[in-house]
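CORE FACILITY INTAKE
Project code: CF-77B
Contact: R.S. (postdoc)
Sample description: multi-component assembly, three entities in total
Requested service: structural model of the whole complex
Turnaround: standard
Below are the sequence entries exactly as provided by the requester. Do not edit them.
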Amino acid sequence: MQINAYDILEKVRAEKPLVHHLTNWVTIYDCANVVKVLGASPVMAHAPEEVAEMSGIASALVLNIGTLTTDLVESMKIAARSAKRKGIPVVLDVCGAGATKFRDDKSFELLNETRIDVIKGNASEVARIAGEDVRTKGVDGGAVGRDLAEVAVELAKGRVCTVVITGKDDIVTDGGATYIVTNGHNMMGGIVGTGCMAASVIGTFCAVESDLARAAASGLCCFGIAAELAAEDCPGPGAFKEKLFDCAYSLNREQIESMQRIVSARTEAP
Amino acid sequence: MQINAYDILEKVRAEKPLVHHLTNWVTIYDCANVVKVLGASPVMAHAPEEVAEMSGIASALVLNIGTLTTDLVESMKIAARSAKRKGIPVVLDVCGAGATKFRDDKSFELLNETRIDVIKGNASEVARIAGEDVRTKGVDGGAVGRDLAEVAVELAKGRVCTVVITGKDDIVTDGGATYIVTNGHNMMGGIVGTGCMAASVIGTFCAVESDLARAAASGLCCFGIAAELAAEDCPGPGAFKEKLFDCAYSLNREQIESMQRIVSARTEAP
Amino acid sequence: MQINAYDILEKVRAEKPLVHHLTNWVTIYDCANVVKVLGASPVMAHAPEEVAEMSGIASALVLNIGTLTTDLVESMKIAARSAKRKGIPVVLDVCGAGATKFRDDKSFELLNETRIDVIKGNASEVARIAGEDVRTKGVDGGAVGRDLAEVAVELAKGRVCTVVITGKDDIVTDGGATYIVTNGHNMMGGIVGTGCMAASVIGTFCAVESDLARAAASGLCCFGIAAELAAEDCPGPGAFKEKLFDCAYSLNREQIESMQRIVSARTEAP
C-alpha cells in the first residue's frame, strides 16, 4: 500500500492532537515546538501526581530518556500505563542507550513493565536495546556491525512493536512492513535536538494514524523534507534550525508529494 | 488616567530590575531571555535553600506551574513569602490549570497560602481558577462560556489582586480599572512560549510600576507591538521567534506611541 | 609561547571529544549546541546512578551551578570524582556565586571536596570565590573593587587551578601564565546564555589540550571571534544568537589568525 505522507500531516493539522511528553531537559523546547509548528498541541508534564490524567486526555505519549532519573522513569511508567488504558500510542526514544548501564537498565524496565508501541533511536541505541554488543558515545551514535534493517525487524517481532532507527536513511518496521525513508539532510546532525524532535514528530503522526509504521515513516519523511528545504541557501546550523521550524510549519502537498522518498521493503517471513 | 506604555519600558531599561523566576523547564530560556532583551535582569533559582534569599534581592517574582512538581510548588511558596516580606510583586502564571486536578489543586494552594498579586493565564485557565467548569487542553486554551472580562473582574475582586487573561485581546483588571490590550499577532499562537514570556514581561513591568494593572497592560502592549513588528515579512514561526526578541530589544517611543492599543474599560461597581 | 587558537579548534574538530555536562536548566540547550557546532559531542546526564560512568567515557566535564539543588551538586561531586579517576579536566562555572549563601556554600563544597581544574565566572562571582566581599545581582555581575587579574592569579595559586574571569576582557591564568583575551562583542551581554556557553567552550578546548590556560584562552578567543562576526549587520539579540552558532560552526584559520587578540601577561612571582 502506497504511503502518502501529506495525508497524515493533513490529519494532524485538522485534528490538532494533544501530544503528552516526558522528555529530557535539553531539547524539551524543541520537542514541544516541533509538535506545535506541525499543527498539533504539545504538553509537557512529569509530576507523578498528574501524568496519568494528562496522558488520559492526550492522543499520544512520547517518552525520552535523554536526561533520565529514577523518579522521571517512574513517572514515565505511570503515564505509559494510563496511555495504554486509553489506547493511545506510546513512543520511547531510547536516547543514550548503550552509553551507561543505567540507561540500558531503565530502557529495559520501560520496555518490560509497560507497553511501548514505538521504539526509536539511532543505530547504536537501538542495537543495544536489541541485545547487540555496541557502545554509544554519549547520545551520538556508535558503529553497529550487523545489517540495521535486520536488527530492527528482529526487535520489532520480538517486542511486537514498531521500531525506528534514525540515521542517514531512516528504517521503520513493524516486523511485517518495513520502510526506508531517505529524506533528510546532513545538517540535521550538525545541531542538537533533531533526534529528539524526530521522536516527537513520530508521536504526533501516530496520534492520528493507527498504522504506526506508516505514521512513523510519514512523520520522518515530512520532517526530512522540512530539513531539506531548510538547508537550501543556509549559512549554518543556527539558521538551519530556525528555518527547520519555518519549513515544517509551511509544508504543503506539492512539496511533500514531489520530494517524498519512502521505499517499502517487504521483509522476509522468519 | 492615560497609559503610556513606553514610559514604563523606559523605567525597566533604566532600573534594570532583577526578576526572579520559578518557572517551567520548557520555556525557561525564553522567559529569561525576554526579560534580558527588555533591559532587565532575569534570574532562575528554585532550590528551597536559596529561593527566599534570591527573592529577597529581586524586584519581582514570577511563578509558572507549566511543569510543576510538589517540591517545586513548595519552593514557590517559600519564594512568594519572601517576596511578600520584601514587598515586591508576585505574578502567578496558572499554566495548564483546568487540564489536571493536580494543577488546579496546586494553583489554589499557591493562591490560598501565599499572597499572589497578579494571576495570569489564558481564558480556560483563568476561568478554572475563577471556579468555572471548563476543561483546558494541556496548556492550550479551551472554550469558556461566560463573558471573560466579567470573569476576570469578579476574580480580581474576590482575590484582591490583578487578573490577566491573555488571548487575541488581552484583559487586565484589578477589579477597579480594566484594560483591554489589542496589540499582538496571531503568530504568537504559532510557537511555544509566548504565553510564558508574557508572564515574565508582566513581572518585569510590575517590578518598576506599583499600579500593577497599568504595568501589566503596558507590558502586554509592548510585547504585542514587538510581535506585530516581528510578524512583518516573516516566513514562519522560527523566524518570528527570533525577530520577536530583536523587536522587543529595539522598541522605541515612536513605535509604541503610534501602535499602542490599550482601551480603558471602567467596570461597573458590583 | 605563542598561542594559536585555531590549532586547538582543529584538534576539537578532529578528535570530536565527548563533553559531559551537569548544568542549569535555563541554558542547557545552548551549552550542548555550542559544543556541537564546534565539532565536538555534548552529553548531558545528571542522575547519580550514571554520572560516574558518563564522565568515565568523556574527555571533559563541565559543571554549572546556575539552577543548582542539593541533589544536583551531589551528582556533580560523583561526576567530578570519576573525571579525576579518568584524568579528564573539570570546569566549574560558579554561576551566581555571591548572590545567595547557598551558591557560595555549594561552590566551596565542590572546590573543597573535589578536584576542579578550571574555575570560571564573571568578575563578582570569581571575586566571591576568592573571598572578596562582593554581591552578585542574580547571575549578572556586580562591581569588584580590586584589580581582577590579581584576584585571579591569587585564586589560581591558592587553589592550584586555572581561573577564568569573563567580561569585556577575559582573564585566564594558571597562576604562572596569564592571558588577556579581548575578543568578543558587547552583544554577548544582550542575551542569556553566552556566559554558560563560554564554560562549555572552555571545557571543549580543555578536552583536547592539556595546558588548560592555553586551552581556555583559545576557546574564549574563538568564541569571541564568532561573536564579533555574528554582530556584523546584526538587527538584534535574536539574530545575534542564531548567527553566533553559524559563525562558531564555520570559523576558519584565516578568520582566527587575523582576528585573534590574546595578550600574554607574565605575572610576578609572589
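Facility notes:
- The longest strand of chain A covers residues 18-22.
- The domain at 5-264 of chain A is CATH 3.40.1190.20 (UDP-N-acetylmuramoyl-L-alanine:D-glutamate ligase).
Invoice: internal transfer
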